[in-house]
Specification:
The complex is a heterodimer of chains A (116) and B (112).
Chain A lengths: L3 E4 L2 E5 L4 E7 L7 E6 L6 E6 L5 E4 L2 E6 L4 E6 L8 E7 L12 E2 L3 E6 L1
Chain B lengths: L3 E4 L2 E4 L5 E7 L5 E8 L3 E8 L6 E2 L6 E5 L5 E5 L8 E9 L2 E6 L3 E5 L1
Parallel strand pairs in B: 2-11
Antiparallel strand pairs in B: 1-3, 3-8, 4-5, 4-9, 5-6, 7-8, 9-10, 9-11
The chains are: A mainly beta (116), B mainly beta (112).
């Protein structure tokens, strides 16, 4: 059972355009929703994250939109640049009451290509 | 500040051989994790350690064992490698009150 579903699998966007990647989750206990960016040959790196008490979070050109009732969240990349070409993963987790977590549940990833 | 360091970076094993993947973090994090990444599958959790002295199974633990040697180090062992274990393995760590996971550079393992 896949707990976090990500789409699309691949995406091509023109430079300057908006890239949108969507994720849906099933476990209502999740309370932390990060997006990771991965370049070839590297480990994933945190891009931006959101908790369910807000509906949107923006950091520079990157925005997470969160819809708790629909159990969906999405990543928007504004003014997409060739340097944004990478694989993006959404993920979800929850924090124990005493701190810590039992790991992230990842979506399957989106391969994003920004064409010059 | 090295962050999360994994060794080796590349390894080729024959079916049935054993090996240990090493991971060390220098950020004083309490929790450490092992994931495997396969094409089109995202990252899947193998084992994790919420604190020194504890380990727990993740989504895909079969064929693996782990050891939390101390707060800094968390190793992953393949006792009898199988071709299905060909993958890229990532170690990660988090601080208790902040769920941001820091990942190593990965170990690309091929089992022939």
């Amino acid at each position: 059972q896949q707990q976090v579903k990500q789409s699309p699998q691949s995406l091509i966007v023109q430079k300057g355009g908006i890239s949108i990647i969507n994720c849906a989750y099933e476990n209502t206990a999740f309370d932390y929703f990060p997006w990771y960016q991965q370049f070839p040959g590297k480990g994933p790196a945190l891009l931006i994250a959101i908790r369910p008490d807000v509906s949107e979070k923006k950091e520079g050109r990157f925005t997470i939109s969160f819809n708790k009732s629909a159990k969906q969240f999405s990543l928007h990349i504004m003014d997409s640049q060739p340097g944004d070409s990478a694989t993006y993963f959404c993920a979800a987790s929850y924090m124990y009451s005493g701190g810590g977590a039992d790991g992230l549940t990842f979506g399957k990833g989106t391969h994003l290509i920004i064409q010059p | 500040n090295a962050g999360v360091t994994q060794t080796p970076k590349f390894q080729v094993l024959k079916t049935g051989q054993s090996m240990t993947l090493q991971c060390a973090q220098d950020m004083n994090h309490n929790s450490m994790y092992w994931y495997r990444q396969d094409p089109g599958m995202g990252l899947r959790l193998i084992y994790y350690s919420a604190s020194e002295g504890t380990t727990d199974k993740g989504e895909v633990p079969n064929g693996y064992n782990v050891s939390r040697l101390n707060k800094r180090e968390f190793s992953l062992r393949l006792e009898s490698a199988a071709p299905s274990q060909t993958s890229v393995y990532f170690c990660a760590s988090t601080f208790d009150r902040d769920l941001e996971a820091f990942f190593g550079q990965g170990t690309r393992l091929t089992v022939v």
